[in-house]
Write a structure and sequence with these properties.
Elements: E1 2-4, E2 18-23, H1 26-37, E3 39-44, E4 51-59, E5 62-70, E6 74-78, E7 83-96, E8 109-110, E9 116-131, H2 132-143, H3 160-177, H4 186-203, H5 207-210, H6 221-234, H7 242-249, H8 253-264, H9 268-286, H10 295-301, H11 307-318, H12 322-327
Antiparallel strand pairs: 1-3, 2-4, 3-6, 4-5, 5-9, 6-9, 7-8, 7-9
Helix pairs in contact: 3-4, 6-7, 6-8, 6-9, 9-10
Domain HTH araC/xylS-type: 226-328
Organism: Kocuria sediminis
Keywords: DNA-binding, Transcription, Transcription regulation
């Protein structure tokens, strides 16, 4: 048995966006595990054949990781305090061995957001990792509480329904988004992170779910809604967050959401989406397919990563497929 104590270098903003790696060399495998999972100490039985494969896809602050580890049971100390990581075990076993011996099941489950010890045996693991500071900032924006501190109470989902929703989202990220050219678009990168972070915040017990919603200030609602819409129209092609819109409206994010629901029967982000759909329509009308314009490129430019879903949304709004508009 050999113990390696490498430098702590998790895969974060400065790490690779894409990685595909297979090896039967324990030393090479340990080096990759250090980078991806912030492992600072690992114990591995070198008398047993070792084999691992590791894939990572993603963008800054959001990564999807898939690992297959074969060989003797292996233990590790992990220090990923700057990462919110969601796991799904599809083969073998994983246990957290500090404090209490806990087996998280198949998942999705939340890895401890603190230094922890774990042990695995013939493990197949799919995980989604988000930058912890960015998740906390997103939670603070949703709550409208500057200085909000995010702490998770448990790694178990609050309900089976939320667990299923998060699992489907992780599958969709891996299949349709994080490995696609669409992620070169800033709007789509932001939307992918927001969707994942929001799902995580609503799936696992935390100080976020402990907070009551803030009431809207009814005296300022009409003006706030108008200011938010004006900001959307002025920055339609830029990545926008609920926090930015609330700041422009001079309201809390929760208050702005309530105001849009009360006066427009929608949400701020859905209203923004409708404005971008209208902008995409305008570009489709003005574009020439003979000059290389495509529905997919125009849709992506306005924040719609899935051409099929864009086509359905466009047809519902304008009565014809977007391709028809482009070819007129």
């Amino acid at each position: 048995m050999t113990t390696a104590t490498p430098a702590n270098s998790p895969l974060g903003a400065s790490g690779p966006r894409h990685l595909s790696f297979t090896t039967s060399d324990p030393e090479a495998g340990i080096e990759v595990l250090e980078r991806v999972y912030a492992i600072r100490q690992i114990e591995i039985d070198r008398t047993t054949p070792f084999r691992m494969s590791q894939a990572v896809r993603g963008v800054e602050g959001l990564h999807l990781e898939q690992a297959r580890l074969q060989g003797a049971p292996t233990g590790a100390l992990v220090d990923a305090t700057d990462i919110v990581r969601i796991g799904q075990v599809y083969d073998g076993g994983l246990a957290f061995t500090d404090h209490t011996h806990t087996r998280p099941g198949r998942g999705p489950f939340l890895f401890p957001v603190r230094p922890y010890a774990c042990r695995w045996d013939e493990l197949g693991l799919l995980s989604l990792s988000l930058d912890r500071t960015a998740v906390q900032d997103h939670a603070a924006a949703l709550l409208g509480r500057e200085g909000f501190q995010l702490r998770f109470h448990s790694g178990n989902p609050v309900s089976a329904a939320m667990a299923q929703y998060l699992a489907r989202l992780i599958t969709a990220l891996g299949r349709d988004q994080l490995d696609s050219e669409a992620m070169s678009q800033p709007l789509l990168r932001q939307e992918a992170f927001r969707s994942a972070a929001t799902a995580v915040l609503h799936t696992f017990p935390s100080t976020f779910l402990d907070q009551p919603p803030q009431p809207a200030d009814s005296d300022r609602v009409p003006g706030g809604v108008r200011r938010a819409i004006a900001h959307m129209e002025e920055h339609l092609s830029d990545p926008l967050t609920l926090a930015e819109l609330a700041d422009a409206a001079r309201m809390s994010p929760r208050g702005l959401q309530a105001a849009f629901a009360r006066h427009l029967d929608t949400t701020p982000m859905n209203h923004l989406r409708s404005l971008r759909l209208a902008a995409a329509h305008t570009e489709l009308v003005a574009s020439d397919p003979a000059a290389g314009a495509t529905v997919a490129a125009i849709a992506a430019r306005w924040g719609f990563p899935h051409p099929g879903r864009f086509a359905a949304e466009y047809r519902a709004a304008y009565g014809v497929p977007p391709k028809t508009t482009l070819q007129r």
